[in-house]
Structures are given as structure tokens and as C-alpha cells.
């Protein structure tokens, strides 16, 4: 008997999914057979993302235009998603918060970081969980960061606030496991997204080296010898969303090509 991840008949909600990791995850979930609801701020990018997925997967693809930092937009997500159907799978992702050291960041920066990284995760989870519990089946996966294990220089907001996601994972895993709902987190390494591509171009220009060498510089400390791809996050999420992963609950899993050096 062959093994195959089959998410046919499931509905997935993925945030920050018009591009980057969120898009890569949504595409893989769709290729596994799940209908998907995309969420992002720009309608044009969402329409383009929807068409890309439709060209590769024979599933329903809907989207909601929303800024996760705005309470009224979170309320609209809940309303529009309710009209489509209550998701079985929830993948939560956001863009990165403002860089900077602790003393460089204002209280407004901290407030915005909380509203970007933590509050939307709690709000949307509270909306989705009752329906998963009622069905006695659900999968929640949060995108976190390696900064949870190894704080990174000049990223104080990410270092501090993303740890809350790990706390949310462990708390919900204990509360929801008996209801057939699993909750896990993914800690990506350096993934080849538009943000990293811009960083590579900047390195190339500043050091007067070819773009390929700039990418090599970014991947120098990665045992795998290369950057990760958004779809490689998606493969893990699709597995965690499948019945094969029903006993994986409360885990924080790195996808970093071996870059993390801490033992625990």
C-alpha cells in the first residue's frame, strides 16, 4: 500500500498567503486536495495567487482582503470565512515585524508588533476552534521563527513576541488534544522569499559581488548548503494537517536545513 497525503474534502485558511511562505503553504495544501481560503492585504496579489493555484490544483480557491493588524479586518475575515465554510485546517503566518534593538524601538513599535504577531493569532484561533471541536477534528499550525530558540541580533520584536506563539502552541495542544484538534508550530530558517531576495540584492550591491555569491553568503552557515523554499514549509504543514500526524501535538519544528545549533 502506498502512502499519500490526501486532504480532499478539507478546507484550509492560510494568512499572509498572497506570496512567500504563506503562498507556498497554500499551494501545497491545494495540491494535496484541500480547498483554500487566502488572506492578505492586497487584492491584486491575492487574485494573482488564486490564479496560480487554480492552474496547478483542481480545488476551490477563495480569498479575503484584510490587514491582520486591524480589528475590523479580523472581524471581516470571520464573517466572510463563515459564508464560505468553517476551515478544518488553519495555517497562521504574518510578515516580519520592524527590525531594531530593544532601545531603538518605540512603544508604538511594540504595540504594532503585538498586533501583528500575537493578537491576530489569538483572535482567529478563538473564531475557528469551536467549530473544530464540534467536528472533533482540526489542525492548527503557526509560523514562528528560530528566534524562539536562538535570539537574533537587531530583531528584538521577533525575539520577544514570537515566543508567545510557542506558548500558544503548548497551551492549545493540552486543551484541544482530547477533542481531535492538534496544534503545532513551524520555525523556518532562511527561506527564499521576496524579502530574502531583496536582502541578497542588497548584499550583492554593497559588496560588488554577483547575486549568486550573495545567496552563497546567506547560506554559508546552513549545513544543507542552500536556502529553503516556501513549498518546503508547505510539505511539513500538509503532513501535520494529515491523519498521519494525528499524534504530533504541541511540537515546535525547525525547517532550516540544519542551521539551528542549539541542542534544545
Gist?
This protein is an alpha/beta fold. It has helices spanning 20-31, 43-56, 71-84, 107-117, 119-135, 156-161, 163-176, 194-207, 211-218, 230-241, and strands at residues 11-15, 35-40, 61-65, 89-92, 138-143, 181-188, 252-255.
Strand content: 5-15%
Named at the architecture level, the CATH assignment of the largest domain is 3-Layer(aba) Sandwich
How many extended strands?
A: 7
* Strand arrangement, major sheet: 3-2-1-4-5-6-7
Q: At the first level of CATH, what is the class of the largest domain?
A: Alpha Beta
Rg over CA atoms, rounded to whole Å, is 18 Å
Q: Runs with pLDDT <50, length 5+?
A: none
Number of domains: 2
Counting DSSP H or I runs of 4 or more residues, the number of helices is: 10
What is the CATH homology-level superfamily of the largest domain?
A: NAD(P)-binding Rossmann-like Domain
Structural class: alpha/beta
SSE pattern, N- to C-terminal: EHEHEHEHHEHHEHHHE
Main beta-sheet annotation: 7 strands, parallel
**Which outline best applies?**
globular
Q: CATH fold name of the largest domain, please?
A: Rossmann fold
Amino acid at each position: 500500500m502506498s502512502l499519500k497525503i490526501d486532504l480532499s474534502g478539507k478546507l484550509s485558511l492560510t494568512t499572509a498567503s498572497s506570496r512567500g511562505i504563506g503562498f507556498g503553504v497554500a499551494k501545497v495544501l491545494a495540491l494535496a486536495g484541500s480547498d483554500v481560503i487566502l488572506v492578505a492585504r492586497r487584492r491584486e496579489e491575492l487574485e494573482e495567487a488564486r490564479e496560480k493555484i487554480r492552474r496547478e490544483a483542481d480545488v476551490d480557491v477563495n480569498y479575503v482582503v484584510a490587514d491582520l493588524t486591524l480589528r475590523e479586518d479580523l472581524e471581516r475575515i470571520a464573517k466572510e470565512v463563515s459564508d464560505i465554510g468553517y476551515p478544518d485546517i488553519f495555517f497562521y503566518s504574518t510578515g516580519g515585524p520592524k527590525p531594531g534593538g530593544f532601545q531603538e524601538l518605540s512603544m508604538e513599535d511594540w504595540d504594532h508588533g503585538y498586533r501583528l504577531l500575537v493578537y491576530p493569532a489569538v483572535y482567529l484561533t478563538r473564531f475557528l476552534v469551536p467549530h473544530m471541536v464540534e467536528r472533533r477534528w482540526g489542525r492548527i499550525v503557526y509560523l514562528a521563527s528560530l528566534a524562539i530558540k536562538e535570539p537574533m541580533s537587531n530583531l528584538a520584536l521577533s525575539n520577544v513576541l514570537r515566543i508567545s506563539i510557542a506558548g500558544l502552541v503548548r497551551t492549545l495542544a493540552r486543551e484541544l488534544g482530547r477533542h481531535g484538534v492538534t496544534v503545532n508550530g513551524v520555525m523556518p530558517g532562511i527561506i527564499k522569499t521576496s524579502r530574502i531576495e531583496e536582502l541578497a540584492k542588497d548584499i550583492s550591491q554593497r559588496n560588488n559581488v554577483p547575486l549568486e555569491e550573495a545567496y552563497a553568503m546567506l547560506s554559508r552557515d546552513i549545513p544543507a548548503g542552500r536556502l529553503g523554499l516556501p513549498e518546503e514549509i508547505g510539505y511539513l504543514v500538509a503532513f501535520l494537517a494529515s491523519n498521519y500526524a494525528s499524534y504530533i501535538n504541541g511540537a515546535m519544528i525547525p525547517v532550516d536545513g540544519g542551521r539551528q545549533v542549539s541542542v534544545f
